[in-house]
Structure formats: C-alpha cells, structure tokens
Amino acid sequence: MSDAHRLRRLFGAVAHLCQAEVDLIAAGYPELVAKLEEIGAVIDLEIAYLDTDDLSRPR
Hints:
Elements lengths: L2 H25 L2 H23 L7
C-alpha cells in the first residue's frame, strides 16, 4: 500500500474519530473521549511520519 493511500485512509479514520469524539462528549463519556484523544495523537504521529517520507513531493 502506498504512503499516499495510507495517508488518505488515516485522514478518513481521523474524521470518523472526530465525529465519535463529539458524540461521546455530548453523551457524557469523558473517559472514552480521553482514549480517542490518545488514539488521535498516535495517528497524528503516523501521518507526520508518512507525510515527511513522501519523496514524490518537492520540498
């Protein structure tokens, strides 16, 4: 799987996590929101790694 494809999939996953976070906040589940924030932080790191590894884009 190419890095560009993985990045697109990760961006999609983050969008879903953001919506889930909003829903959990509204439902009153702060402990689950915290877990989603942890997952989001890991995904952010992976996106940063893949984005800097994209040699096809000019710097």
